[in-house]
Write a structure and sequence with these properties.
Shape: globular
Order of helices and strands: EEEEHHEE
Radius of gyration: 15 Å
Number of domains: 1
Distance between the termini: 42 Å
Length: 123
């Protein structure tokens, strides 16, 4: 008999990276715009955020210490208004090579939080 697996409850949320820190991830989904209950200043009604899933490989936050750097990733959901996602990634996904790398579970991306609070993405 095949062993069944069940997963109940929501997906873990991505914790923000503090200024001067970075994290690594792979296998990201295409960011999807959604309306939040908060005024974000973005989107048609000024309440848009973008949601994506990714496999977190390394993160400096202590709550991720159980897997960080172990080679075993943690699938998380990130809801953000970060310009690097809502503008740069969405535009870059039009390029087929970028889109392939973005979704590739073997391609490692590094997300760095600059001292001014903005994010930089490198892969």
């Amino acid at each position: 008999m095949t062993e069944k697996k069940f997963k109940l409850g929501g997906m873990p949320r991505f914790r923000q990276v503090e200024p001067g820190e970075d994290c690594e991830f792979s296998g990201a989904s295409i960011p999807e715009e959604f309306e939040s209950e908060w005024d974000t200043g973005y989107g048609k009604n000024k309440n848009s955020k973008w949601s994506l899933t990714l496999t977190l490989l390394k993160h400096p936050h202590p709550s991720y210490s159980f897997f960080s750097g172990s080679g075993n990733g943690l699938e998380v959901v990130w809801e953000t208004v970060a310009e690097v996602i809502r503008v740069s990634v969405i535009e870059s996904l039009k390029d087929k090579d970028f889109a392939k790398a973005w979704k590739d579970p073997e391609f490692i991306w590094t997300l760095t939080r600059r001292e001014d609070g903005s994010y930089m993405l490198e892969g």
